[in-house]
Every structure is written in structure tokens, then in C-alpha cells.
What does this fold into?
Amino acid sequence: MINISEVIETNKMIEQENLDVRTITMGISLLDCTGATTLQALKRNVYDKIMSKARDLVRTGEDISREYGIPIVNKRVSITPAAIVGGGVCKSSDDFVGLAETLDEVAKALGINFLGGFSAIVSKGMTRADEMLIRSLPQALAQTERVCSSVNVGSTRTGINMDAVRLLGQTIKDIALATTERDSFGCVKFVALCNAPDDNPFMAGAFHGVSEPDAVINVGVSGPGVVKYALSHVHGETFEVLCETVKKTAFKITRVGQLVAQEASRRLGVPFGIIDLSLAPTPAVGDSVADILKEMGLQAAGAPGTTAALALLNDQVKKGGVMASSYVGGLSGAFIPVSEDQGMIDSVRAGALTIEKLEAMTCVCSVGLDMIAIPGDTPATTISGIIADEAAIGMINQKTTAVRILPIIGKKVGDEVSYGGLLGMAPVMPVNRFDCSEFVNRGGRIPAPIHSFKN
Amino acid sequence: MTNKAIITVVGKDTVGIIAKVCTYLADNGVNILDISQTIVQQYFNMMMIVDASGMTKPFETVGAELNELGKEIGVQIKCQREEIFDKMHRI
It folds into this structure.
């Protein structure tokens, strides 16, 4: 039988160490909406399908949260990539903007904070619909509030679509410009990915892949604060003790996620998909991945040893987590966003953390360069170069990588932007000023890598 | 799903905490299976394992009313389904 010290431990994790379930995301296939012959009919089909599946999502999440006493921060929906859904009837970028508006309406009607999947998978090439969707993004993300978008530009199997990478560099700048008055907020809702998973519950990269069933429940756990607290008791101990501590803590965190996922699945009558074993930080003090690295013995995130510490953390989280859940998927690892992690913000301010170091860190964790503000006058080709670098890391290392970068129009290095809530605050970071335009502008694809002769 | 719940009371010790909680539970058809208590950092911590299958009100309502009762007494009372503890601490 459960004893009082176990009960106190669990409740202390929740009340003092910011343990929460970060998101219950319902993935919904819209493939059965594509029979529509007009845009109007498609919008109605899409609205009705999402409403019919996710009507009770928010209420169910709140019920579970109250009954188990565990905060469930976000309730969200992901859909089949919109470029596939809209491909038949959207004849222009404006048509895709209209589809995004419908998605925004349904998100508001459901009471969810984000809906992901205004997306295109263009790892090898772009269809006309893919390109129209990408070109619609500045307007679509400016005119909608809750729609998130992602574009998968490459994979280990296909290589990197550099035409798409080039287009996205300019598109990200255009999104920033279209939302200038809100500190280029549109860019927060867009991410470029390589090796994007079909079952990711986290935004902005969530979409419901075509390999998925009609509807599915995916859950993203969190808990950097819990890991940090656990590590505060093992200062001076060996790596063996450090690893054991992370592993045990990750197990406990993940078990809560598994419970919530199974319960949500049962109550909503929708199959359980996966648990995403992620340490997702928030700007709350103590709920920081950077603070975990400091707890391991680094003066600041970004100090020499950071990549090794993060690799260890990421691996132990997975080792503890897989034991706790029957199905693990999504991104699964430690997130290292800058604006959403107070410890990362402090490291950038102190000059300990650069974009180049963050890039190295993305080689060993999920997912990529995330929530990084850069000067608004950064050339589009430089942004494309950054995306290409990240995609190359993902492609070669057979992992997911991503770029969610925020060129803040009118801001320069040293300025800061604040988005509030979980999105936090971002110091504008310097970008390497050397040019890569000739490389980016070549056009075509980077071929898929060889899988033998690994070094 | 089992129908057990864990009720925790945390706060400054005072006369009649257990009596008030037990009275409320008796009035609402909740059977107490086990009670234990301890003092952590000068705070009174009590845990009850209860059987919620005979609850005369919805689980959520009992949780909310216990929370209110706690505010009246000046302690924090939570009512959570047992599985969250069971899953976390038992393989």
C-alpha cells in the first residue's frame, strides 16, 4: 500500500518542483475531408471533423487534472499536414490563408491554445500545394492566433531539399515582417524540421502524420524542476550516481504521463498513441534544463562540458522513461529553447551561451535551435544557412532537428523581446555575419547520406 | 480502475482537524481504509486512504468541498485518485 512519504514526495514534485503534464495533444486525421470539391466544403468538413473528435478534449483534460491533482498545462490538437488536406481545392496562397482561418476558428471554439499541422512535408520536393502553403505563411500566421505551422525540409532517407530551405529563409523574414508590431510573434508559431516525427505532441512542430490512425492521444511530459531538485542531493557523487538519479526521476515523471495518457484515451474513446519523454522547461524559476546542467557542475549552460552534460541527461531521461511507458515516441529528449528557459536566458545574458554552442548541443538532444531571437536585419540567406546546418545534423545523425528562429524586426543584439506566459523572454543573440548566399542559392537538393562507413 | 483515493492534509496542527475531515467523509459515504500522519518541517501531514466507491457526490465535488473545508480550518486538503501515487512509486 502507498505510504505517506511517497504521497508527500509526489505532491512536493507537483507543488514545489513544477511537475506537470505539459500537453495532451489529440492527433486527428483529415484525410477523409479531402473529398470536398470546393474550398467552402473543405472548410466545413475540416471544422466538423475536428469538432466531432475533440469536442470534449479540454473538459476531459481538466477533469483528469482535478481528480489526480496533477496540472495538465496544455490541451492541443494536431492535424494531417494542411498542404495534403488543402491540395485538392486550394488554388492560391489566399485559399490556404482561408483554411488557416478555419483552423483558428475551430481552435477557439474548442478552447485549445494551439492547433498544429498547418504543415508541409517537402523533404525531397515541393508540390504546388506545398509551395502555396509556404508562401501563405506570412499572412496565415499574422491573421490567425492559434495555428502552428511546420515544414519538414529533409530526412536521413531523402537528403535536404535546399530549394525549400532557401524559400523558408525568406518566408521566416516575411513572417517576422508581417507581425512586426507584435515583435515578430508569427515566427514563434513556425518551425522548420528535419526527420520530423509523425506523432510529436509539442508545438510548433506537431502534426498528425499519414501513418497515424484516424485519431490518437499523444502526451508530452515535463519536469526539469523535479530532475534539478533530485540532482541537488548528489553533488560530489560519481557519474554513476548522477545517471541513476536522472533515470529514476525520469521514470517517475513518465509514469504520471502514461497514467494521464491512458486515462484521457479511455475517457475520450480515442486510442493512446505515445508518450513524448521530454524535459520541457518553462520560464518559471527552477523549471529549467539549463539549471539541471548547472546542478551537474557547470557554472553556466554553455560552459565547456555542456554538450557532454546534455548528452548524459538526454540519454538517462530516455533510459528511465522507456521503462515507464509502453509506447514512447515524438521528440523524446531534453528541450533547449532559449526564451522559455530562465537559466538559458541568464546564460545568454552572461555571454556564456552562443548560437554556435546551442548548435553543438542540438547534436545530442531534442530538438534544435529553439526560440532564439536574432537581429531583424539578418539576411534571409543566413537564416537558410542556419536551417541547412541544423537539417544536416539531423540528416547525418538520424535524429530530429529543428529551427524555430525569431528575426525580430527593428531589434538588434542586446535588445530583448517578451512574449509572456510559457513563451517567455528572448535576448537578441548575435549571428555570424559572414555570407553564405552563394551556397544557399545554388538550388536543388543535398543528397541522402551513405549509411555505411560511419565515423 | 480502482476506486481508492488519497486525501492529504497539510498545515499547522490544530485541534479537531481529523474530526472535521472524518465527519465530512462520513456524511458523504466515504469509507476510511487507513490513516497515517507525520510532522515534516514543523508541518502536520496526514494521509488517508479512502474507498470512494460509495461516494454520494461526484469525485470532483468531494475534492472541491474538501479543499473548501481545508480553507475554513486553515490547512490544505487535497483529494486525489490513488493511481497517480501507485503508478509513480510501484512497478
Summary: DSSP finds 15 helices and 14 strands in chain A. Chain A touches chain B at residues 1-11, 63, 66-70, 252, 255-256, 258-259 (CB under 8 Å). Residues 216 and 270 of chain A are 6 Å apart (CA to CA). The domain at 219-446 of chain A is CATH 3.20.70.20 (Anaerobic Ribonucleotide-triphosphate Reductase Large Chain).
